[in-house]
Amino acid sequence: MRSQDHDRLFLSPPHLGRHELNYVHKAIEDNWVAPVGPNITGFEADICQAAGVAHCVALSSGTAAIHLGLILLGVGPGDEVLCPSFTFVATANPIVYLGATPVFIDSEADTWNLCPERLREAITDRIARGKKPKALLLVHLYGMPARLPEILAIAAEYGLPILEDAAEALGSRLNGQPLGSFGTIGVFSFNGNKILTTSGGGALVTNDATLARKAHFLATQAKDEATHYQHSEVGYNYRLSNILAGIGRGQMELLEERVKRRREIFAWYQEHLAGLPGLTVAQAPEPPGSRSNRWLTTLLLNPAETAATPETLRLHLETRNIESRPLWKPMHLQPLFATAPMYGGAVCADLFGRGLCLPSGTAMTDADQRRVKEALAEALA
Ligand SMILES: *Cc1c(COP(=O)(O)O)cnc(C)c1O
Protein backbone atom coordinates (compact mmCIF):
# COMPACT_ATOMS: atom_id res chain seq x y z
CA MET A 1 0.00 0.00 0.00
CA ARG A 2 2.61 2.47 1.12
CA SER A 3 4.89 1.87 -1.84
CA GLN A 4 2.06 2.88 -4.18
CA ASP A 5 1.01 5.93 -2.24
CA HIS A 6 3.55 7.49 0.09
CA ASP A 7 1.30 10.33 1.21
CA ARG A 8 -1.74 8.30 2.13
CA LEU A 9 -2.34 8.17 5.86
CA PHE A 10 -4.19 4.96 6.69
CA LEU A 11 -6.46 4.28 9.65
CA SER A 12 -4.56 1.35 11.19
CA PRO A 13 -2.14 -0.31 8.77
CA PRO A 14 0.00 -3.34 9.66
CA HIS A 15 3.27 -2.45 11.39
CA LEU A 16 5.88 -5.16 11.16
CA GLY A 17 9.04 -5.36 13.26
CA ARG A 18 12.47 -6.88 12.69
CA HIS A 19 11.94 -10.49 13.79
CA GLU A 20 8.85 -11.70 11.92
CA LEU A 21 10.89 -12.69 8.87
CA ASN A 22 13.31 -14.76 10.98
CA TYR A 23 10.47 -16.93 12.26
CA VAL A 24 8.93 -17.27 8.79
CA HIS A 25 12.33 -18.03 7.27
CA LYS A 26 13.01 -20.74 9.83
CA ALA A 27 9.59 -22.32 9.20
CA ILE A 28 10.30 -22.60 5.47
CA GLU A 29 13.89 -23.75 5.98
CA ASP A 30 12.70 -26.51 8.33
CA ASN A 31 9.76 -27.44 6.08
CA TRP A 32 7.23 -26.54 8.80
CA VAL A 33 4.59 -25.06 6.51
CA ALA A 34 1.59 -27.08 7.68
CA PRO A 35 -0.92 -25.92 10.32
CA VAL A 36 1.33 -27.53 12.93
CA GLY A 37 4.84 -26.70 14.10
CA PRO A 38 7.07 -24.75 16.47
CA ASN A 39 5.81 -21.28 15.48
CA ILE A 40 2.25 -22.23 16.42
CA THR A 41 3.37 -23.64 19.75
CA GLY A 42 5.54 -20.57 20.37
CA PHE A 43 2.82 -18.11 19.31
CA GLU A 44 0.30 -19.81 21.61
CA ALA A 45 2.76 -19.66 24.52
CA ASP A 46 3.35 -15.94 23.84
CA ILE A 47 -0.41 -15.26 23.87
CA CYS A 48 -0.90 -17.27 27.10
CA GLN A 49 1.82 -15.21 28.74
CA ALA A 50 0.47 -11.86 27.51
CA ALA A 51 -3.15 -12.67 28.36
CA GLY A 52 -2.39 -14.38 31.67
CA VAL A 53 -4.24 -17.57 30.71
CA ALA A 54 -3.33 -21.25 30.81
CA HIS A 55 -4.38 -22.33 27.31
CA CYS A 56 -4.47 -20.87 23.80
CA VAL A 57 -5.52 -22.31 20.44
CA ALA A 58 -4.28 -20.30 17.44
CA LEU A 59 -6.93 -20.08 14.72
CA SER A 60 -7.42 -18.71 11.22
CA SER A 61 -9.42 -15.67 12.39
CA GLY A 62 -11.08 -14.01 15.34
CA THR A 63 -14.43 -14.85 13.77
CA ALA A 64 -13.51 -18.56 13.78
CA ALA A 65 -12.55 -18.21 17.46
CA ILE A 66 -15.94 -16.67 18.32
CA HIS A 67 -17.70 -19.44 16.36
CA LEU A 68 -15.84 -22.20 18.23
CA GLY A 69 -16.24 -20.35 21.54
CA LEU A 70 -20.02 -20.29 21.15
CA ILE A 71 -20.05 -24.01 20.30
CA LEU A 72 -17.96 -24.74 23.40
CA LEU A 73 -20.49 -22.84 25.53
CA GLY A 74 -23.21 -25.09 24.14
CA VAL A 75 -24.95 -22.54 21.90
CA GLY A 76 -27.16 -24.21 19.31
CA PRO A 77 -30.32 -23.76 17.21
CA GLY A 78 -33.05 -21.76 18.96
CA ASP A 79 -30.78 -20.43 21.72
CA GLU A 80 -30.45 -16.74 22.54
CA VAL A 81 -27.08 -15.02 23.02
CA LEU A 82 -26.74 -11.60 24.65
CA CYS A 83 -24.51 -9.26 22.66
CA PRO A 84 -23.77 -5.53 22.55
CA SER A 85 -25.32 -3.77 19.55
CA PHE A 86 -22.33 -1.44 19.25
CA THR A 87 -19.69 -3.72 17.71
CA PHE A 88 -18.32 -5.04 14.42
CA VAL A 89 -20.60 -7.56 12.68
CA ALA A 90 -18.02 -10.34 13.19
CA THR A 91 -19.04 -10.46 16.87
CA ALA A 92 -22.65 -11.31 16.03
CA ASN A 93 -22.40 -13.36 12.82
CA PRO A 94 -21.26 -16.62 14.50
CA ILE A 95 -24.44 -16.55 16.65
CA VAL A 96 -26.36 -16.79 13.38
CA TYR A 97 -24.05 -19.53 11.99
CA LEU A 98 -25.33 -21.69 14.86
CA GLY A 99 -29.02 -21.04 14.25
CA ALA A 100 -29.20 -19.02 17.48
CA THR A 101 -30.63 -15.51 17.93
CA PRO A 102 -28.64 -12.48 19.04
CA VAL A 103 -30.33 -10.36 21.70
CA PHE A 104 -28.79 -6.92 21.38
CA ILE A 105 -28.11 -4.52 24.23
CA ASP A 106 -27.29 -0.80 24.24
CA SER A 107 -24.02 0.80 25.36
CA GLU A 108 -23.31 3.06 28.28
CA ALA A 109 -21.91 6.47 27.41
CA ASP A 110 -18.50 6.39 29.14
CA THR A 111 -16.85 3.21 27.84
CA TRP A 112 -19.25 2.74 24.88
CA ASN A 113 -19.51 -0.91 25.96
CA LEU A 114 -22.38 -3.06 27.25
CA CYS A 115 -24.61 -1.15 29.70
CA PRO A 116 -24.95 -3.22 32.93
CA GLU A 117 -28.46 -1.87 33.68
CA ARG A 118 -29.69 -2.75 30.18
CA LEU A 119 -28.04 -6.16 30.54
CA ARG A 120 -30.03 -6.92 33.69
CA GLU A 121 -33.21 -5.64 32.02
CA ALA A 122 -32.60 -7.88 29.00
CA ILE A 123 -31.90 -10.99 31.08
CA THR A 124 -34.98 -10.61 33.28
CA ASP A 125 -37.20 -9.86 30.28
CA ARG A 126 -35.92 -12.85 28.26
CA ILE A 127 -36.49 -15.11 31.28
CA ALA A 128 -39.99 -13.63 31.74
CA ARG A 129 -40.69 -14.43 28.10
CA GLY A 130 -39.77 -18.04 28.78
CA LYS A 131 -36.16 -18.45 27.66
CA LYS A 132 -33.00 -17.88 29.63
CA PRO A 133 -30.14 -16.66 27.39
CA LYS A 134 -27.45 -19.28 26.82
CA ALA A 135 -24.41 -16.99 27.01
CA LEU A 136 -23.14 -13.42 27.06
CA LEU A 137 -20.82 -12.20 24.30
CA LEU A 138 -18.89 -9.26 25.73
CA VAL A 139 -16.89 -6.75 23.63
CA HIS A 140 -14.25 -4.16 24.58
CA LEU A 141 -14.73 -1.54 21.87
CA TYR A 142 -11.64 0.13 20.41
CA GLY A 143 -9.67 -1.48 23.26
CA MET A 144 -11.60 0.12 26.15
CA PRO A 145 -12.43 -2.29 28.99
CA ALA A 146 -16.16 -2.86 29.51
CA ARG A 147 -17.70 -2.37 33.00
CA LEU A 148 -16.42 -5.77 34.05
CA PRO A 149 -17.08 -5.80 37.83
CA GLU A 150 -20.80 -5.03 37.34
CA ILE A 151 -21.16 -7.29 34.30
CA LEU A 152 -19.33 -10.25 35.89
CA ALA A 153 -21.57 -9.95 38.97
CA ILE A 154 -24.76 -9.97 36.88
CA ALA A 155 -23.53 -12.90 34.76
CA ALA A 156 -22.65 -14.86 37.92
CA GLU A 157 -26.04 -14.09 39.47
CA TYR A 158 -27.80 -15.68 36.48
CA GLY A 159 -25.21 -18.40 35.81
CA LEU A 160 -24.39 -17.03 32.36
CA PRO A 161 -21.05 -17.98 30.80
CA ILE A 162 -19.12 -15.12 29.17
CA LEU A 163 -17.41 -15.27 25.80
CA GLU A 164 -15.08 -12.28 25.80
CA ASP A 165 -14.53 -10.76 22.35
CA ALA A 166 -11.20 -9.03 23.00
CA ALA A 167 -10.44 -8.80 19.26
CA GLU A 168 -9.70 -5.07 19.60
CA ALA A 169 -8.31 -5.23 23.13
CA LEU A 170 -5.09 -7.26 23.07
CA GLY A 171 -2.83 -5.62 25.68
CA SER A 172 -5.65 -3.74 27.46
CA ARG A 173 -6.04 -4.30 31.20
CA LEU A 174 -8.44 -3.84 34.06
CA ASN A 175 -6.86 -3.53 37.52
CA GLY A 176 -3.72 -5.05 36.02
CA GLN A 177 -5.48 -8.13 34.62
CA PRO A 178 -5.31 -8.55 30.81
CA LEU A 179 -8.60 -8.42 28.90
CA GLY A 180 -9.48 -11.73 27.28
CA SER A 181 -8.85 -13.52 30.59
CA PHE A 182 -12.09 -12.49 32.35
CA GLY A 183 -14.56 -14.71 30.51
CA THR A 184 -14.89 -18.50 30.43
CA ILE A 185 -13.40 -18.10 26.96
CA GLY A 186 -11.57 -15.14 25.40
CA VAL A 187 -10.98 -14.27 21.76
CA PHE A 188 -8.26 -12.25 20.01
CA SER A 189 -7.94 -11.19 16.37
CA PHE A 190 -4.73 -10.79 14.39
CA ASN A 191 -6.41 -9.32 11.31
CA GLY A 192 -4.46 -6.76 9.28
CA ASN A 193 -5.97 -3.71 10.98
CA LYS A 194 -5.60 -4.83 14.60
CA ILE A 195 -2.88 -3.71 17.04
CA LEU A 196 -0.81 -6.79 16.10
CA THR A 197 -1.33 -8.83 12.94
CA THR A 198 -0.50 -12.15 11.29
CA SER A 199 -2.13 -10.76 8.09
CA GLY A 200 -5.14 -12.84 9.14
CA GLY A 201 -5.49 -14.90 12.27
CA GLY A 202 -7.13 -15.31 15.64
CA ALA A 203 -6.86 -17.07 18.97
CA LEU A 204 -9.13 -18.67 21.54
CA VAL A 205 -7.91 -18.56 25.15
CA THR A 206 -9.21 -20.20 28.33
CA ASN A 207 -8.07 -21.46 31.71
CA ASP A 208 -10.12 -24.62 31.21
CA ALA A 209 -7.98 -27.46 29.81
CA THR A 210 -11.03 -29.45 28.67
CA LEU A 211 -12.41 -26.52 26.67
CA ALA A 212 -9.00 -25.87 25.10
CA ARG A 213 -8.67 -29.51 24.05
CA LYS A 214 -12.16 -29.42 22.57
CA ALA A 215 -11.40 -26.20 20.67
CA HIS A 216 -8.31 -27.79 19.14
CA PHE A 217 -10.33 -30.92 18.25
CA LEU A 218 -13.10 -28.93 16.53
CA ALA A 219 -10.59 -26.70 14.70
CA THR A 220 -8.88 -29.71 13.14
CA GLN A 221 -11.91 -31.48 11.58
CA ALA A 222 -13.05 -33.26 14.77
CA LYS A 223 -11.14 -36.48 14.16
CA ASP A 224 -11.99 -39.28 16.57
CA GLU A 225 -9.10 -41.18 18.11
CA ALA A 226 -8.79 -43.70 15.30
CA THR A 227 -6.48 -43.95 12.30
CA HIS A 228 -9.29 -44.56 9.83
CA TYR A 229 -10.81 -41.05 9.59
CA GLN A 230 -13.72 -41.53 11.92
CA HIS A 231 -15.94 -38.61 12.94
CA SER A 232 -18.72 -38.36 15.50
CA GLU A 233 -19.09 -34.57 15.44
CA VAL A 234 -19.05 -31.76 12.87
CA GLY A 235 -15.57 -30.25 12.67
CA TYR A 236 -13.94 -27.22 11.11
CA ASN A 237 -10.69 -26.34 9.36
CA TYR A 238 -9.86 -23.35 11.53
CA ARG A 239 -6.21 -23.79 12.49
CA LEU A 240 -3.61 -21.07 11.82
CA SER A 241 -0.66 -21.98 9.59
CA ASN A 242 2.82 -22.30 11.06
CA ILE A 243 4.02 -19.63 8.59
CA LEU A 244 1.52 -17.02 9.80
CA ALA A 245 2.19 -17.99 13.41
CA GLY A 246 5.80 -17.01 12.69
CA ILE A 247 4.65 -13.48 11.87
CA GLY A 248 2.65 -13.61 15.09
CA ARG A 249 5.68 -14.53 17.20
CA GLY A 250 7.60 -11.54 15.85
CA GLN A 251 4.59 -9.31 16.48
CA MET A 252 4.01 -10.56 20.04
CA GLU A 253 7.53 -9.42 20.97
CA LEU A 254 6.30 -5.89 20.24
CA LEU A 255 3.01 -5.89 22.16
CA GLU A 256 3.99 -3.60 25.04
CA GLU A 257 5.79 -1.20 22.68
CA ARG A 258 2.76 -1.04 20.39
CA VAL A 259 0.33 -0.40 23.26
CA LYS A 260 2.61 2.36 24.55
CA ARG A 261 2.70 3.99 21.12
CA ARG A 262 -1.08 3.77 20.56
CA ARG A 263 -1.56 5.43 23.95
CA GLU A 264 0.90 8.18 23.00
CA ILE A 265 -0.99 8.77 19.76
CA PHE A 266 -4.25 9.01 21.71
CA ALA A 267 -2.68 11.44 24.24
CA TRP A 268 -1.31 13.61 21.41
CA TYR A 269 -4.73 13.90 19.80
CA GLN A 270 -6.33 14.59 23.16
CA GLU A 271 -3.91 17.42 23.87
CA HIS A 272 -3.72 18.97 20.40
CA LEU A 273 -7.35 18.69 19.28
CA ALA A 274 -8.61 20.22 22.54
CA GLY A 275 -9.05 23.69 21.03
CA LEU A 276 -11.09 22.65 18.00
CA PRO A 277 -14.71 23.82 18.20
CA GLY A 278 -17.39 21.18 18.66
CA LEU A 279 -15.00 18.25 18.81
CA THR A 280 -13.88 16.03 21.69
CA VAL A 281 -11.57 13.04 21.74
CA ALA A 282 -13.81 10.24 22.96
CA GLN A 283 -13.74 7.32 25.42
CA ALA A 284 -11.91 9.60 27.83
CA PRO A 285 -11.01 9.63 30.63
CA GLU A 286 -10.41 5.95 31.35
CA PRO A 287 -12.49 4.74 34.31
CA PRO A 288 -10.35 4.00 37.42
CA GLY A 289 -8.38 0.77 36.98
CA SER A 290 -8.91 0.67 33.20
CA ARG A 291 -5.97 0.75 30.83
CA SER A 292 -7.08 0.74 27.18
CA ASN A 293 -4.64 -0.23 24.43
CA ARG A 294 -6.19 2.74 22.55
CA TRP A 295 -6.37 0.64 19.39
CA LEU A 296 -8.19 3.48 17.62
CA THR A 297 -8.53 7.09 18.71
CA THR A 298 -12.11 8.22 18.14
CA LEU A 299 -13.77 11.62 18.27
CA LEU A 300 -17.28 12.86 18.93
CA LEU A 301 -18.87 15.98 17.45
CA ASN A 302 -21.26 18.17 19.40
CA PRO A 303 -24.03 19.27 16.98
CA ALA A 304 -24.83 22.24 19.28
CA GLU A 305 -21.36 23.66 18.58
CA THR A 306 -20.63 22.70 14.99
CA ALA A 307 -22.49 22.12 11.75
CA ALA A 308 -19.87 19.58 10.69
CA THR A 309 -20.86 15.90 10.67
CA PRO A 310 -18.66 12.81 10.78
CA GLU A 311 -19.25 12.43 7.04
CA THR A 312 -18.25 16.03 6.16
CA LEU A 313 -15.09 15.55 8.24
CA ARG A 314 -14.35 12.20 6.62
CA LEU A 315 -14.78 13.61 3.12
CA HIS A 316 -12.55 16.59 3.91
CA LEU A 317 -9.82 14.34 5.38
CA GLU A 318 -10.10 12.27 2.20
CA THR A 319 -9.22 15.36 0.10
CA ARG A 320 -6.02 15.55 2.19
CA ASN A 321 -5.36 11.85 1.51
CA ILE A 322 -6.15 10.87 5.09
CA GLU A 323 -8.28 7.80 5.81
CA SER A 324 -10.85 8.02 8.59
CA ARG A 325 -13.87 5.79 9.24
CA PRO A 326 -17.29 6.02 10.86
CA LEU A 327 -17.73 4.19 14.15
CA TRP A 328 -19.14 0.66 13.88
CA LYS A 329 -22.76 0.93 12.79
CA PRO A 330 -24.81 -0.66 15.61
CA MET A 331 -26.20 -4.13 14.92
CA HIS A 332 -29.81 -3.14 15.72
CA LEU A 333 -29.61 -0.62 12.83
CA GLN A 334 -28.37 -3.25 10.36
CA PRO A 335 -30.79 -4.68 7.77
CA LEU A 336 -29.33 -8.10 8.66
CA PHE A 337 -30.64 -7.84 12.24
CA ALA A 338 -33.81 -5.81 11.68
CA THR A 339 -35.97 -8.32 13.58
CA ALA A 340 -33.56 -9.20 16.41
CA PRO A 341 -34.59 -8.21 19.97
CA MET A 342 -32.96 -4.98 21.21
CA TYR A 343 -32.80 -3.44 24.70
CA GLY A 344 -32.34 0.33 24.58
CA GLY A 345 -30.49 1.64 21.54
CA ALA A 346 -30.46 5.44 21.84
CA VAL A 347 -26.95 5.61 23.35
CA CYS A 348 -25.08 3.70 20.66
CA ALA A 349 -27.21 5.19 17.85
CA ASP A 350 -26.26 8.68 19.10
CA LEU A 351 -22.55 7.79 19.31
CA PHE A 352 -22.65 6.33 15.80
CA GLY A 353 -24.23 9.54 14.49
CA ARG A 354 -21.59 11.80 16.01
CA GLY A 355 -18.36 9.78 15.94
CA LEU A 356 -15.35 9.17 13.72
CA CYS A 357 -12.21 6.97 13.94
CA LEU A 358 -8.90 8.74 13.32
CA PRO A 359 -5.65 7.36 11.91
CA SER A 360 -4.02 5.57 14.84
CA GLY A 361 -1.36 3.28 13.34
CA THR A 362 1.76 2.86 15.46
CA ALA A 363 4.09 3.79 12.57
CA MET A 364 2.60 7.29 12.24
CA THR A 365 4.73 10.30 13.21
CA ASP A 366 3.97 13.55 15.04
CA ALA A 367 4.06 15.22 11.60
CA ASP A 368 1.37 12.79 10.42
CA GLN A 369 -0.74 13.67 13.45
CA ARG A 370 -0.26 17.39 12.75
CA ARG A 371 -1.58 16.74 9.22
CA VAL A 372 -4.72 15.18 10.71
CA LYS A 373 -5.11 18.10 13.11
CA GLU A 374 -4.77 20.69 10.31
CA ALA A 375 -7.29 18.88 8.13
CA LEU A 376 -9.77 18.68 11.03
CA ALA A 377 -9.26 22.38 11.80
CA GLU A 378 -9.97 23.27 8.14
CA ALA A 379 -13.13 21.17 8.14
CA LEU A 380 -14.40 22.75 11.36
CA ALA A 381 -13.52 26.37 10.39
C1 LIG B 1 -11.85 -7.64 14.06
C2 LIG B 1 -12.95 -8.04 14.96
C3 LIG B 1 -13.46 -9.35 14.97
C4 LIG B 1 -13.13 -10.39 13.94
O1 LIG B 1 -11.80 -10.76 13.86
P1 LIG B 1 -11.26 -11.37 12.46
O2 LIG B 1 -9.91 -11.87 12.85
O3 LIG B 1 -11.22 -10.24 11.49
O4 LIG B 1 -12.18 -12.46 12.05
C5 LIG B 1 -14.43 -9.67 15.91
N1 LIG B 1 -14.89 -8.77 16.78
C6 LIG B 1 -14.44 -7.50 16.79
C7 LIG B 1 -14.99 -6.55 17.80
C8 LIG B 1 -13.47 -7.08 15.87
O5 LIG B 1 -13.06 -5.81 15.85
Describe the structure concisely for a colleague.
The protein has 381 residues and is of the alpha/beta class. The protein has helices spanning 20-29, 38-51, 62-72, 89-97, 116-128, 148-157, 209-219, 242-252, 255-272, 310-319, 346-354, 366-380; strands spanning 55-59, 80-84, 101-105, 135-139, 162-165, 173-174, 177-178, 185-189, 202-206, 279-281, 290-291, 298-301, 325-326, 342-343, 355-357.
- The ordered string of helix (H) and strand (E) elements is HHEHEHEHEHEEEEEHHHEEEHEEHEH
Number of strand elements: 15
CATH homologous superfamily identity of the largest domain: Type I PLP-dependent aspartate aminotransferase-like (Major domain)
State Rg.
Answer: 21 Å
Q: What proportion of the residues form beta strands (DSSP E)? A: 5-15%
Architecture overview:
With 381 residues, this protein is an alpha/beta fold. The protein folds into two domains: 3-13 and 256-380, Alpha-Beta Complex (Aspartate Aminotransferase, domain 1); 20-254, Type I PLP-dependent aspartate aminotransferase-like (Major domain) (Aspartate Aminotransferase, domain 2), CATH 3.40.640.10. It has twelve helices and 15 strands. The chain has helices at 20-29, 38-51, 62-72, 89-97, 116-128, 148-157, 209-219, 242-252, 255-272, 310-319, 346-354, 366-380, and strands at 55-59, 80-84, 101-105, 135-139, 162-165, 173-174, 177-178, 185-189, 202-206, 279-281, 290-291, 298-301, 325-326, 342-343, 355-357. The strands form three sheets. An eight-stranded mixed beta sheet has the order 1-9-8-5-4-2-3-14, sandwiched between helices. A four-stranded antiparallel beta sheet has the order 10-12-15-13. The chain has a three-stranded antiparallel beta sheet with strand order 7-6-11, with no helix packed on it. The two termini are 31 Å apart. Bound molecules: pyridoxal-5'-phosphate (PLP). Residues 61-63, 87-88, 90-91, 139, 165, 167-168, 189, 191, 202 line the site of pyridoxal-5'-phosphate.
